[in-house]
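Because discrete structure vocabularies remain unfamiliar, we turn briefly to a single example record, giving the amino acid sequence and backbone structure tokens:
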Amino acid sequence: MINIFFVSFLVALTGALSPGPVLTFTIYRSLKGERGYLAGLFITLGHATLEFGLIVALLLGASFFLQNIIVYTIIGIVGGILLIFFGAVVIKDIYNRPIDINLAEIKEEDIKGFTGNSFLGGIIVSLSNPFWTLWWAGIGLGLMVSLEISFQEPIGLLLFFLGHEMGDLIWFWPVSIFVYLGGKALNPKIYRGVLLFCGAFMIFFGSYLALKIVFFPEFNLFYIF
């Protein structure tokens, strides 16, 4: 089942690496917080708390619909297509926009919302981001369907959750430590390379999921990874 952790981790890492409200909030709290080096940790914990509740809600709600093979197939295909689209957008942005995140220029007005406690901020900033909701409604749910995440397989569910949150933690916490210690800018070559790899993986895996759900619904992902 380690494949579930690996896939969940890489997909989450791609989302975390893309500049957005949570990254901006992490940089701000790292600069302004009394213990800024822990900002990324607490923000990720808040974010994870929210996502745990959402995953449980999705499984409870989806269980009534996923017994229908048509609904199951549609969700799987849409999730795969969105993974491909998101991966393509990530790669497109790498070549069309300069990768230059100046960490010293984040100001309070850039947050456009909550600027307080890091843990609460991880919850509030995530909730206030419409992309986060759309991500889980499309990519997240499709991924859970394709990886066969359910309450009947608690180990798989735990690995999916831990992999997803580790993808966030491995990015946001080191960023907060780097910023707190006086880092001014991320290495654009390294940042670009990691994004390129993650974007390519999203396209590959989205294609695999879309094809698997249509042609090989009984095929176990374990034999691929």
Notes: Residues 130 and 199 are 21 Å apart (CA to CA). DSSP finds nine helices and no strands in the chain. Confidence is low (pLDDT under 50) at residues 219-225.
